[in-house]
Amino acid sequence: MEEIHVKLYLKGKELVKLKRYDEAIACFNEAIELNPGYKEAYNERGNAFLIMGKADDALGSFNIATEIDPKYVDGWRNKEAVYLLLGNYEEVIKCSDCILKINPYGESVWINRGCMMMNLQRFNEAVECFDKVLEINPGSRYAMGQKKSALSHLVNTHAREIRRLTKKICLLGNPAVGKTSLIRRYVYDVFDDKYITTIGTKITKKVLSLKYRPPRPDIILTLIIWDMAGQEELENLRSAYYQGSDGGIFVCDTTRKETLYNLNSWVNTFFKITEKVPIVFFGNKIDLSIQASFGDEELGYIAKVAGAQHYLTSAKTGRNVEEAFSVLGRMILEQS
Ligand SMILES: Nc1nc2c(ncn2[C@@H]2O[C@H](COP(=O)(O)OP(=O)(O)O)[C@@H](O)[C@H]2O)c(=O)[nH]1
Ligand SMILES: [Mg+2]
Fold first, then answer.
1. Which one, of 89, 55, 93, 61, lies nearest residue 74 by Cα?
2. Average pLDDT taken over every residue of the chain
3. 175 lines ligand 1 (CB under 6 A)
4. 256 C-alpha to center of ligand 1: Å?
5. 103-128, pLDDT tens digit by residue?
6. Closest atom of ligand 1 to CA, residue 313
7. More exposed terminus of the chain, fewer Cβ within 10 Å: N or C?
8. Does residue 285 line the site of ligand 1, with CB under 6 A?
9. With a 6 A CB cut-off, is 177 part of the ligand 1 pocket?
10. Cβ atoms within 10 A of the Cβ of 40, count?
């Protein structure tokens, strides 16, 4: 016979699957009332809050879970994910420290920590992390590549003045316009798959090296690209997702006119959360020109009204993808 609090916990998990988050949270609350030390219930309640976009409440739940059991790795992982979502990278590192205290041989934890150090431009520490990975798994090509890249950053710093910047951009637009495909086309360096399941968001990075004529220093720009994993419809999640963005890419599908007309409403909700940051419009799937329902002129008009540049792109053939992303990168730099 399962105890009542366990039953409530399992029911809560089922309700989360059905996207009935409020009811799920009520179940977890009841389970916690019956068993105040129920760390798993706190953890799942945190996940439910997170899916609803309530990052602070989620953090509160995960905090209690790790207070109940400081060796509760799932709780630390989720806390790490919230901080990543909020862009608080220092706290992300603190969480990974705690996870590594519990399990010093977690290869993926060291990899993530190394990537985070790269983003914070703490290249010495990044090298240490990738060395750890190589200690655990001497054959890791990924770690070898990352270590080499961290070392080259260290060497280059001494050779010539370089500015390093990290900027966050979001891709927005109706479901199925090609946001995920565009990112995949543009970025090969998958930053961290782990976070998809927890927060419905995928984060990838692309490092751009921009050369300028001296005395202007060259710039190494790390774009952290945020992609919603099919959660576009979740209003609450969006504000957490948009927070702290330095630029936005608004994507429509040239074979579906309604996706063009929706661009403005995506821009409006975005600018409610962020400051006025640079934006670019992509008219994607241009390879399907036979099925096109609008073209450059219409996209150009709507972009102009919003004060954005525009590109016709194809994630399938790669047409204009690199250029369009780079233009946004340069626009962000002009502003910083
Ligand atoms: N022909 C063509 N298909 C595309 C292009 N970009 C995306 N797709 C397809 O459109 C569908 C939705 O793409 P996805 O990237 O998941 O869209 P998202 O929901 O905006 O992230 C998938 O079947 C893709 O293969 C493109 O440029 N050309
Ligand atoms: Mg997608």
1. 61
2. 87
3. yes
4. 12
5. 999 888 898 888 888 877 888 999 99
6. 27
7. N
8. yes
9. yes
10. 19
